[in-house]
Known about the structure:
Blueprint: E1 2-4, H1 7-17, E2 33-36, E3 47-52, E4 61-70, E5 75-84, H2 87-94
Amino acid sequence: MKIIFDPIKNESNKQKHGVYLADAKHLDWDRMVAASDSLGNYSEDRYIGITYGLAYLNNRIYVVVFTYSDGDDEEIYRIISLRKATKAEVEKYAKT
């Protein structure tokens, strides 16, 4: 699994949401609940996932927006946004 992101967006995400896009590597991707992002008219398939951040991220629940593609040797996830989940999102995740 390879995590990629725009370095400029990485900094702006930190300012806006308090977490770097690079921190997506510390998410529990195996327990993620993800769905297609149908909120916008994008030129690519985007997904919204919700899962736990591992110890590095204080075991909080996070929402991540990403694209996915198969690389030659590994899966590639391009991170678009990463933020702490809202209370409503946490409650919804707990029911899954």
